[in-house]
Amino acid sequence: MTAVIIRKVESRLEKMVRPGGHGMKAHEALAGAEENLNSIEDICLKELDLRLAPIVAFLDYPADVRPSSESLAALIHHADRALTACGALTMPALGKTLLILSAMADALSQSDYWPQGALNPAINLISLFRVRDVPDKDAASLLSNLEMCLNQYVKHIKNSATAG
């Protein structure tokens, strides 16, 4: 009869990190981190809402009037701050929308091109994703359409730059 012997070989790194077999295992550390993030979720949501308020207020601008370059730069700054605030939350669609909004505002700030309500779809999506009521499949489709808008803006700006 053959006997199978199973040995656990401890690597040098394990000996350094977990001397004497003490310390956390990876799954324990991940569970602890998840618990810590859950404990600060309410604080993060309040901070996120504070940082989203100036972005949503941008909808009050007349849709047919191009905002100043300074206003667009401020919008990019607010989107960056909101993106930082949602970093501890599990809201990937919101984060991606904030990035696209920044890219759209940046692209539009580099020319006089301004389609009516150019940034309104992105800002409305931000409000929609904030309430976490959009299924992932629908979120992916909405983000894809928003990226198409961004690509059209960039394409139009590049074409007008080469024509002029």
Features:
single chain; 164 residues; mainly alpha; Four Helix Bundle (Hemerythrin (Met), subunit A); 7 helices; 68% helix; 0% strand; elongated
Class of secondary structure makeup: mainly alpha
- CATH C-level label: Mainly Alpha
String of helices and strands:
HHHHHHH
Corresponding CATH architecture: Up-down Bundle
Fourth CATH level, the homologous superfamily: HPT domain
- Radius of gyration over all CA atoms, rounded: 23 Å
Strand count, sense and closure of the main sheet?
A: none
Beta-strand portion reads under 5%
Whole-number count of domains: 1
Question: Cα distance, first to last residue?
Answer: 86 Å
What's the overall average pLDDT, rounded?
A: 88
Runs in which pLDDT lies below 50 for 5 or more consecutive residues are none
Choose one word for the global shape. Answer: elongated
* Percent range of helical residues: 55-70%
Tally of extended strands? 0
**What would the CATH topology be?**
Four Helix Bundle (Hemerythrin (Met), subunit A)
